[in-house]
Write a structure and sequence with these properties.
This is YdhG-like domain-containing protein. With 199 residues, the protein is an alpha+beta fold. The protein has eight helices and four strands. The chain starts with 5 loop residues before the first helix and ends in a 12-residue tail after the last helix.
């Protein structure tokens, strides 16, 4: 038997009447299609979990509500799954949702994916193109062989952190200070975010 969460009740009650109707409808369909589902709050929004994994989530705002599956592309088979508004866009009424039988089938498919034990595919990470070293930083590094050696020894991601930090400066004075600070830290063998690294 599934488990409800009083925090979800409170969330729904705090929303506008149109959103309450949508959220209650979604909640009933999810529980009907997957009787073992459990409710919780994730990121302060109602979520449905199944066997310890997130199945779906819903939310409501001033003028619309949203609903989406965690493994959206696999459940719905659409590219629309990447939308921040969930798979069904901005919901302003129950009519914006698929037919109940279709939505129940999607809930069952989401549960079946969890039952299968397969992992959700991870999005492909496209490598970032290399950044050119700005002339002012190149000159400062050339004047300090220790800093240049440290920079050359950093992996591309750590080099990029310094390059982005320097080039994101808006004012020339700020940029000059960042170039000087970067060379100083690199001469000491420090990465850009060395202050936040665990000892």
């Amino acid at each position: 038997m599934g488990k409800t969460d009083p925090r979800v009740d409170a969330f729904i009650e705090s929303k506008a009447v149109f959103a309450q109707l949508i959220l209650r409808h979604i909640r009933a369909i999810v529980h009907r299609a997957c009787p073992e589902v459990e409710e919780t709050l994730k990121w302060s929004m109602p979520s449905f979990t199944y066997k310890g994994q997130i199945l779906a989530g819903m939310a409501a705002f001033k003028e619309h509500a949203t609903f989406g599956f965690w493994r959206s592309k696999e459940v719905t088979g659409t590219e629309q799954a990447e939308s921040a508004m969930g798979q069904f866009g901005r919901l302003t009424s129950i009519a914006d949702l698929p037919e109940d039988t279709a939505l129940e089938a999607m809930v069952r498919k989401a549960a079946a994916l969890i039952d299968s034990g397969t992992k959700a595919p991870r999005p492909l990470k496209h490598p970032k193109p290399p950044l050119a070293i700005p002339d002012d930083l190149r000159a400062a590094l050339a004047a300090n062989p220790g800093a240049q050696a440290a920079y050359d020894g950093f992996p591309p991601g750590q080099q990029r952190e310094y390059l982005e930090w320097v080039t994101e400066a808006r004012r020339p004075e700020t940029r000059a200070k960042r170039v000087a600070r970067a060379v100083e830290w690199m001469a000491e063998g420090k990465r850009r975010n060395w202050k936040y690294e665990s000892c």
